[in-house]
Specification:
243 residues, alpha/beta, Rossmann fold, Arc Repressor Mutant, subunit A, 2 domains, 10 helices, DNA binding, Sig_transdc_resp-reg_C-effctor
Length: 243
């Protein structure tokens, strides 16, 4: 098979170290597949050039809501997965609302790194389904298709998306988390102090702290600290935001 017709995976994201590790893992497990790193601004041109390529996005979804949204038109009908160091509740909600599959955690991949595979594994490789799609896509060799343009990022669209994700996040809460407890966590991650939230809700500050720990444990987000936004990519100063 010519190099031009070989299966190809494009990796992109804001963590070069993670992207490099993922490319190394793919090369070791699927030597017949070519991997190529892509800067975010290169994605549209590369997808047009390689219509059969699969895409692995190496990033934390809760930090990249606007960019993930803008990529949707380009990635429609293509093999796509997200690899993330965090698979928090907020990450899952962002991906779900935008139509992406659940992210593959770096923890799930770490045991498959070269030199760490002890004995015979019974479970499938976390990327096996994605890679099978990539190989099938290369065999189809689609061509002559006009690639859609990326979606436009804007403050108003991002604000609307955040509201939609927040509503969906509240709707999908596990049974052990109440809407009031979720409200308290949201205010704390917005940057409010425990005393301010206590005054707002009529609860004692100690109760607010207990609720916060309870919700974070229930959602598997123990790493989140007060003042750390749930959707960080849209919470930075406007002067730092990239559209």
């Amino acid at each position: 098979m010519s190099r031009e017709g070989m299966p190809l995976v494009l990796t992109a994201g804001d963590d070069w170290t993670l992207s490099a590790a993922v490319r190394g893992l793919i090369s070791a497990q699927w030597p017949e597949v070519i991997t190529k790193d892509a800067a975010p601004e290169e994605i549209p041109a590369l997808l047009a050039r390689f219509p059969q390529a699969g895409v692995l996005l190496c990033l934390r979804p809760h930090e990249h809501l606007p960019w993930l949204d803008s990529l949707c038109p380009l990635l429609w009908g293509r093999a796509v997965r997200v690899v993330s160091p965090t698979v928090w509740y907020s990450d899952r909600m962002v991906l779900s609302c935008l139509g992406y599959r659940r992210a593959v955690s770096t923890d799930a991949l770490s045991g498959w790194l070269p030199g760490r595979r002890a004995g015979k594994r019974k479970e499938a490789h976390p990327l096996s389904g994605f890679m099978a799609e990539v190989v099938r896509g290369a065999e189809k060799r689609r061509g002559g298709q006009e690639l859609p343009v990326p979606g436009r990022m804007s403050r108003t669209r991002t604000a609307r998306l955040v509201r939609e994700v927040q509503k969906e996040s509240q709707r999908m809460l596990p049974a052990q988390v109440t809407a009031r407890q979720w409200f308290i966590l949201c205010r704390l991650t917005d940057g409010m102090k425990g005393g301010q939230v206590a005054a707002l809700t009529g609860l004692q500050e100690k109760t607010v702290s207990l609720y916060r720990r309870h919700v974070l444990c229930a959602l598997g987000m123990e790493e989140v600290k007060s003042g750390m936004p749930l959707y960080r990519g849209v919470m930075v100063r406007e002067s730092l935001q990239r559209y």
